[in-house]
Backbone:
C-alpha cells in the first residue's frame, strides 16, 4: 500500500506514457467507447420513457365486475370493499346504473339520442376495479368467484398486450446493457493488451526486479479507467445535446407522451454515464491485465 | 544465503543444463562462477533468480524455497537481489536516474529517500553527471554502470552479475569487477559469472565455482 501511495505521481506519468505510445489507436478507442455509451444512454432514456408509458397504461388497467340485479346498495358496497382487499387490486369504485348511462351518453355524443328509445335505463351497475397488470389472472378469477358478481368484463387482450410491451422493453434494455458492457470490455481489454505488448520489455524487467503484478498493472488499469471515463464524458455531453434538441423539437407535438422532466433526464445521464464508464473501465482493464498475472 | 542439494536442471528440449549441484553460499561471500560459454553459468543464475525451477533436488535462496514456488514468493526473493543482467535490461525512453529509481519503486521507499539513494548509487558508479541522460544515449560501459547502480541502490542482500566483463576491454573489465567487489560487505553477497578467468586468477578472499558441462567444482581461497 505504501508503495502505491509513494508512487501516485509515477503511475499518472506512466499512464500518460502508455496513452501517448499508441495515441491514435487510443483516440479511436475513446471515440468508440463514447459512441457505445451514447447508444446505451439513448436506450436507457428510451426504456425510461417506455417504462413511464407502461406505468401510465398500468394505472389505467381495469376490469369491471357486474353485480347481480337483486343486490341492495349496501351489499354492493360490501362486495366492492371485499374486492378492494384482494391482492393485485389497486382501487375499486361503484358505478351505478345512472352513471353508466351518463358515461355511454358521453361516448356516443350526438348519437346518444338512441338511448331515448329505451323506456328504462338499460345499463347495469358494476364495480370498476383498477388492477396491477401482473396480477391480472388471479384478480379476474377471484372477482368471478365472488358471490354477487354476475360476470366480469376484462379487456384481457389489451392488458396482455401491455404486459408484452413491458416485458419486451425490459428485455431490450437488459440486452443493450449486456451488449454495451461486453463491447466496452472487449475494446478495453484489447487496448490494455496492446499497451502491455508495447511495454513487454519493461514489464519483464520489472518482474525480474521483483515488482508485484499489482504494481506493474496499476498504470494500465489507470489508463483504461481514464480512457473509458473520457468516453463516458463524451457520451454524457452528447446525450445532453440530444436531450435538449429532442425536447425543444417535441414540445407540444406529442402531448400524450409521458416524458420525464428534461432536467431530471440530463442529471441522470451526466451522473450515470460517467459512473458506468468508470466501473466498466476498471473491470475491463482488470480483465485485460489477466495476461500479466501469475507468470513469475 | 543460497543452499542447494543435488539440484539438476533439464530444459524442456531435454538439454541437461546442470547436474547434482550442491552449494552453500554464506552471507558476505564474494563468489565467482567461471566456465566456458554454454557450461551452465547462466542457468545457475537463472535458478537463483527463480527464472527456472530445479528439475530435481532442493534449492533455497535467502531462506525461501525456490522449488515450484508461486510467483509471489519468487518476486519476494527477487526484491532482495540486485541483478546486473548481461544485456542490462534498462528501460528505454527513461533517464539513468529514472532507471535506477525503477528498481526501488515497489519497495515501499519514500520518494525523497528513493531519489537520494539513486543519486548516490549513480555517483558511486561514476555517472552522477549523466543522471538525466536517456539510457539509449549512453555508451555500453555507461549502460552497464547504470545497471550496476540500479542493482546496488536498493541495498540488496545478494548482487548477481551475469558476465559483466563480457564486452569490455581489459582496463574497463578490471574497473567493473573492482566496482562490483566494492559492494560486498558482511550483509551483501556478490556473485559474478565470467568466462574471463585471467581477470580473477590472483583473487583472494573469494569462492570460485567452476562449471563445466553442468557440473561444478568449488574452491575457497580465504586467508
Residues:
Amino acid at each position: 500500500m505504501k508503495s502505491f501511495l509513494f508512487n501516485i505521481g509515477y503511475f499518472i506519468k506512466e499512464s500518460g506514457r502508455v496513452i501517448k505510445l499508441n495515441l491514435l489507436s487510443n483516440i479511436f478507442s475513446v471515440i468508440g467507447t463514447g459512441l457505445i455509451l451514447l447508444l446505451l444512454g439513448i436506450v436507457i432514456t428510451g426504456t425510461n420513457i417506455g417504462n413511464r408509458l407502461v406505468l401510465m397504461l398500468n394505472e389505467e388497467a381495469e376490469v369491471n365486475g357486474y353485480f347481480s340485479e337483486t343486490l341492495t346498495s349496501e351489499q354492493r358496497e360490501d362486495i366492492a370493499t371485499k374486492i378492494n382487499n384482494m391482492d393485485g387490486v389497486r382501487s375499486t369504485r361503484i358505478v351505478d346504473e345512472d352513471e353508466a348511462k351518463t358515461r355511454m351518453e358521453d361516448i356516443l355524443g350526438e348519437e346518444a339520442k338512441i338511448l331515448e328509445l329505451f323506456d328504462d335505463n338499460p345499463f347495469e351497475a358494476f364495480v370498476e376495479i383498477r388492477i396491477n397488470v401482473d396480477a391480472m389472472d388471479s384478480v379476474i378469477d377471484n372477482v368471478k368467484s365472488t358471490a354477487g358478481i354476475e360476470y366480469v368484463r376484462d379487456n384481457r387482450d389489451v392488458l396482455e398486450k401491455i404486459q408484452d410491451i413491458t416485458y419486451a422493453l425490459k428485455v431490450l434494455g437488459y440486452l443493450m446493457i449486456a451488449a454495451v458492457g461486453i463491447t466496452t470490455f472487449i475494446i478495453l481489454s484489447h487496448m490494455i493488451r496492446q499497451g502491455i505488448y508495447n511495454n513487454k520489455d519493461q514489464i519483464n524487467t520489472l518482474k525480474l526486479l521483483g515488482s508485484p503484478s499489482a504494481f506493474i498493472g496499476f498504470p494500465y488499469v489507470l489508463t483504461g479507467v481514464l480512457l473509458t471515463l473520457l468516453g463516458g464524458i463524451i457520451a454524457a455531453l452528447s446525450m445532453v445535446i440530444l436531450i435538449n434538441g429532442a425536447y425543444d423539437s417535441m414540445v407540444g407535438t406529442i402531448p400524450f407522451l409521458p416524458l420525464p422532466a428534461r432536467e431530471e433526464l440530463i442529471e441522470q445521464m451526466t451522473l450515470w454515464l460517467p459512473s458506468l464508464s468508470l466501473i466498466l473501465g476498471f473491470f475491463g482493464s482488470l480483465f485485460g491485465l489477466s495476461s500479466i498475472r501469475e507468470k513469475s | 544465503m543460497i543452499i542447494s542439494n543435488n539440484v539438476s536442471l533439464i530444459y524442456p528440449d531435454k538439454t541437461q543444463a546442470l547436474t547434482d549441484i550442491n552449494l552453500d553460499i554464506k552471507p558476505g561471500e564474494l563468489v565467482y562462477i567461471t566456465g566456458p560459454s554454454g557450461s551452465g553459468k547462466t542457468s545457475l543464475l537463472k535458478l537463483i533468480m527463480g527464472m527456472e525451477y530445479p528439475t530435481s533436488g532442493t534449492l533455497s535462496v535467502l531462506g525461501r524455497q525456490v522449488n515450484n514456488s508461486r510467483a509471489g514468493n519468487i518476486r519476494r526473493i527477487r526484491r532482495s537481489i540486485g541483478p546486473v543482467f548481461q544485456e542490462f535490461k534498462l528501460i528505454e525512453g527513461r533517464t539513468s536516474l529514472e532507471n535506477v529509481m525503477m528498481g526501488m519503486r515497489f519497495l515501499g521507499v519514500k520518494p525523497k529517500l528513493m531519489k537520494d539513494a539513486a543519486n548516490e548509487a549513480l555517483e558511486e558508479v561514476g555517472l552522477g553527471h549523466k543522471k538525466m541522460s536517456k539510457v539509449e544515449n549512453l555508451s555500453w560501459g555507461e549502460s552497464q554502470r547504470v545497471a550496476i547502480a540500479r542493482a546496488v541502490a536498493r541495498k540488496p542482500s545478494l548482487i548477481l552479475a551475469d558476465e559483466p566483463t563480457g564486452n569490455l576491454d581489459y582496463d574497463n573489465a578490471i574497473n567493473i569487477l573492482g566496482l562490483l567487489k566494492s559492494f560486498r560487505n558482511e550483509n551483501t553477497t556478490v556473485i559474478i559469472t565470467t568466462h574471463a578467468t585471467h581477470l580473477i586468477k590472483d583473487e583472494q578472499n573469494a569462492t570460485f565455482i567452476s562449471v563445466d558441462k553442468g557440473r561444478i567444482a568449488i574452491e575457497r581461497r580465504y586467508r
In short: Residues 91-155 of chain B form one domain. The radius of gyration of chain B is 17 Å.
